Task: structure prediction
Amino acid sequence: MAGGDGYKRPFFLGIDLGGTNVKAGVVDDTGRPLSSVSLPTEADRGPEHGVHRICQTAREAVLKAELTLSDLHSVGVGSPGPMDLAEQIIINPHNLPGWINLPLAAKVSENLGLRAVLQNDANAAAYGEYWAGAGRGCHTLVQFTLGTGIGTGIILGGQIWEGRHSHGAEAGHIRIDISPTARLNGTGLYGSLEAYASATAVVARTQEALNAGEPSSLKSSLESGQRLTARLIFEAGFAGDLLASRIVEETAFYLAVGAVNLMHTIDPDIVVYSGGMIAAGGPFLERIKHYVRENALPIPAAKTEIVFAKLGTDAGFIGAAGCARLKFAAA
Amino acid sequence: MAGGDGYKRPFFLGIDLGGTNVKAGVVDDTGRPLSSVSLPTEADRGPEHGVHRICQTAREAVLKAELTLSDLHSVGVGSPGPMDLAEQIIINPHNLPGWINLPLAAKVSENLGLRAVLQNDANAAAYGEYWAGAGRGCHTLVQFTLGTGIGTGIILGGQIWEGRHSHGAEAGHIRIDISPTARLNGTGLYGSLEAYASATAVVARTQEALNAGEPSSLKSSLESGQRLTARLIFEAGFAGDLLASRIVEETAFYLAVGAVNLMHTIDPDIVVYSGGMIAAGGPFLERIKHYVRENALPIPAAKTEIVFAKLGTDAGFIGAAGCARLKFAAA
Result:
């Protein structure tokens, strides 16, 4: 492309801030990306350096799209929480240590000379899929992003549901296990969806079974130096390893319970799963759907679409750009 | 009152349809009731007779308010589900046997000569508390109505969240127990909130403990001819009976998990509990709040109000009248 030919103006900048990397991209008015750039966040060097890295990544993305900042309408930033969306500050994200009460939208706006809006990263990713991915054309969408934790986003009729204390769509923390032996997650809560079905939890549950002496082909994989990851476990499961298949099956069940609980609350058109774990593909999705049908009331069980995301790791910056469009460019 | 003196016009009719009784009332523009009448539904005599009973109850309420139907602006009907709100029909409510695919709003409208709107009963009750009860002045409210089952209602910025298939706010059916021994509820779903914390479930859990031979003062109450009810169990619990106290404590925990799961999804200003069980009063509410604080993320745990409803059994018809106002009279 030369300066955005063939794309629909106005153009928006989207930034997906993570603890490890920051990804920025230029997106057109239909959610189509013109460019993207990813750089290490270097979060441990503190918030001032972090803001500099974020804006450097954004400038490189603009350059890569053969544009200048004056061609951009506005910028959206997706960040890990907790945050105060009314105040547009991040409070103290676990994986951005020392970034405390940072007015990130204002800082980015000042640096880039563009209007800027801050949004929760999982909300932004959900908005990306709603606007330009798996949820295109739907009305109401719920998304689960499966990674170290489980992020969720809720889009109601085109609007991001933020909640009254910026804690809407924190459904990775809904409690699905009331037993006294419920698992613990990183936030210190017991029995949460995230403690069972995040990639971290898949690895932990498998490791516990291996430690308990359950036989598995994973043992020889680990002895040959491979690291125990959700991907390795899913591959072993679909290759017929008994322990790994059981873990995969249980994970599908837990994820279905998460979907059902939001279906019985939000009742969306569509439930989207995203994140590395969806690389497991169609057979895994079918197992999730099986358990959704088993656990949901008949009408939502029959009518709700259950799908995997389409935008991969681009959903974050595309959705963040969409948030800028929603806030600053909506008619 | 004589013909509504001292009340703010316009006036609305509200109808709360249940399997046993139908309650109707006239409500003013601020949610204040002028009159109410309750009659047996006689649901087993079929839908045609049922519509007649509903409208008879409504006419008596109008008469009692010293008004005529021409003084009424419009009418709202709260009914058990499942229903199709887009089509304004009830599908096949469990406790209205044979009332299948009934266009209830149209039937009531025709009979009374007023514009009519149909709403889910738990949604209507939640709207009643939002408009004129425990939630007055708030923005976003979640309500749990504890009875035979658990009905829920979600009010987002003054609008009732119905969901895309009229199954929003069916949070009595969220799954909170993923164990293989999870309890079953009336709809055939395992591990639902309703299977643990409805009045029916409180009685069932207590009966099972008694059957298992746990000692309790409830035994002599039953031998003296009293019926095992949630009320009897709560009274015994607060009087120090060990078995009953444990049941009360566990119920507070389950209800807190329900609240937390909606706080991590909707993130409302306020969570309201209504229904017979709240007669247990302040000490019970304190136990629920204790478990909410233990299970919620810090910000919603600190900021969300957890309260008991204020309108008692009037919430249904007041809320139904509010639905008519929302649909037909909002500026």
Observations:
- Chain B touches chain A through 49 residues (CB under 8 Å).
- The mean pLDDT of chain B is 96.
- The first strand of chain B starts at residue 11 and ends at 17.
